[in-house]
## 1
Amino acid sequence: MGWRPRWRPTGTVLVWQDLWEDVAHLILTGYAFASPGSRPTARRLLPNAAAALWLAGFRDGHPAGDVRQAAAGLASRWPLVVVTLGEEGALVARQGREPEAVAPARPARVVDSTGAGDLFAAAFVHAWLEGAGPVEAAAYANACAARLVGHEGARPPLDLPAWPRAATTSRGGSVT
């Protein structure tokens, strides 16, 4: 009996990319696997910079400035693209608009970045579901990820002060 995926379409794309060239890139879009030329079934894409470049068709030797161009190109296929840039923040790209830079939240000190990308995605979705716009949700996600990297491991201590309340929702409230 082989391994069988049991994914359900959720409208969110998860992007995984390995560091070695000989390992395939895996992009999940509901039940389907996507490749750079495919039509996505999801409406939101949250890749890191390397995955965004790969999906946009850029290969080795690309200048770093192409991340903005890649985000804009991906936004022609996905209605909303949020590219994580680590300590440089994020880019929010929407169809028909120039990508918007989201400033990073600076941690007091970086101890361990394990889990920061996963937390960014979870915090972005949380803020989005609470009514924040994409730029505000990305700012909130940056603040949460910055809080995490100040601690060792992907699980912060239980006595960590409250998570940031950095996003203002379109309904006038705060993401908590």
Note: Residues 105-176 form one domain.
## 2
Amino acid sequence: MVFSGLFFLTIFLPVSLILYYAVKNRTYRNVILTIMSLVFYAWGEPVWILLLLFCSVFVYLFAIMIERSNRKNLSKTLLIVSIAILIAILGFFKYSGF
């Protein structure tokens, strides 16, 4: 599915917007956006949802560790390690010819 595709413009986007605006609770709105984003992403190739979820959880956990760190040097190290791991993942998929 592409953003300019007929299915996206006539069905997926309107359904997403109707669901989003039908709910008033901000938390539920975020859940709806997350689910619709995952559905859109999975439309191309569902197996890559696992990679997306892994990277999201990975970044979230490292952000929590950085926030809870009391030492500036540890925070910098955690940030550098997390960025390096994400760049390694990107490099693998970009240059490995998978």
Note: The chain has a mean pLDDT of 92.
## 3
Amino acid sequence: MVLSCEEDFTNIGSEVISNTKFDTNSISVDILVENSPLEKVQSDNISRALGQYLLGVYNPSEYEKLEASIVSQLAITTGLKVIDESFGSDTTVVTKIDTVFIKIPYQVSLENSTDTEFKIDSVFGDATKAFNLNIFRSNTFINNFNPSDPTKINSFFSNHVFQKDGNALNSSQNFQFIPNRNDTILEIKRRLFDDRIATKDTLKITINNSNISVPFARIPLNEEKIKELFLDKYESSEFSSQASFNNYFRGLILEATGNQGSLISFNFNNSLTTLNPSLEIYYTNTVLKSGSIVLDTIYKNDSFPLSGFRVNTFNMDDKTYPTDDQIIVQGTAGSEAKINLFGADLNANGIADKIEEIRTKNWLINDATLTLYINDTKDTTHVPERLYLYKSYQENQKTINSQIKDAVSEASSGGIGGLLERNNGKVEKYTFNITDYISDLLNSNSNFSPDLKLKVFNSTDVPAFASDTIFRNFSWNPKAITLFNNSTSDVNKKAVLKISYSKKK
């Protein structure tokens, strides 16, 4: 259908023409969409304050298996002492470790507004089956600055290998991790020098001054190893400062392995510190006179938050990607899609032939949308609620990622879109608004038309401020979807670029 209008016309990036009659029409442009598997993504918290970290195993039938592990430094308090005060010459103090464990609170929400029970959020896979979790001491020194250029911030990627120092610190190897919303209370038995139980403490986490307990995972550690690494070193130079400690104890590796189980997202940046992961040491000092007479019992707890530098590592099984009309977009270090909007440059002059053709028509671009349809016969268990587009190209043998203009120019009205759309309750498509980008491309002398990349959305994808054109490809969203490309036999589900334009009569 061709429509005619006599209204003033304004086009961003083009001239303004008023009081002139126009014909308005639209075209659908054939595009090329390909699978673009990833080897790695940036997954540290140095260049941007990431809070969400994945831990566990996610093994969907039609996508890549993911084993997600976490590496983190520990924060200390200086001046730590096992025994805080001096006693007489005829007394001795016996220190007994009661328990040592890693505490990781779950992200939760109330079942409903009147309920007092939480449900665990952000769990993927089969939460009824366990994955293996082992805790190691890291032997990789973390430098926040790039060793090759100390003026630049360092960066770590999801495939970085962190060296382990010794055997696992678990109390028993291959801890069987299953998320459990009922893990809200931990009883701690306080023991005297002779192993008799003196008292029992109860650990629970509450929020907002309520009596509602937040569930938390607890991974028991080897008490003798932790005593040797921590308590026995408290008054040494290794604990004299955070920097000294970071060099001595370079961090923990929480390593998840297996072929089944679940993947859980944890928040490491809660404003309420009790909700942040930590290494907890509970111990009792028994003050004895003449070797057997108990003068005093002192109960202590030292907490070491998993703080400072952190990184997610993703071990992903390679899969053979389809070569037909199927496009897989999977978060973390899975796969993106590479999109060529205007096809080939057959005359080799540096600009796509389709762009040259459209430029000769002197169109004024009203609207441009890119639509990709979902193949709902594939696994849609965890469908991304949003996908994201960005530009990617090579410059001086480096990959440069940048924002599409609409992500910045239309930020106040939703940017480029990309939200999941449903039809009669069924997942259907994703639509991207790229009017400014296409308008500039078709109405300028610039021949720069890089490929676009399509990924699972993360909150850090959007520009950080009004003039921010740099795209930073973090990804901790493990969701995945299968899309149709441009060659599917179903013409109603082809990936398509639709351009609406006006032309002077």
Note: Confidence is low (pLDDT under 50) at residues 1-17.
